[in-house]
Amino acid sequence: MDEIVVGRLRKAHGLEGEILVSPETGDPELVFVPGREFGLSGSPGPSGIRSLTLRTARPHRGGFLLRFEEIVDRSQ
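^ thats the sequence. predicted structure below, dont judge the formating
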């Protein structure tokens, strides 16, 4: 399956695992919906996670704050 970039991870936000994402899609409200699974490109981080399931999404300063099922705190 072809990959489509829908966002770029910018930085961790807060202590509970939220991540600030820059959307790369024209309709982020339709893309960033709870339950959707996203693949990660690039090399895996220390935890080896290759895909994430979206738990919550909310707009924040020109981007979106996303929380994923697989990430429970900032250290992940």
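The chain is about 5% helix and 40% strand.
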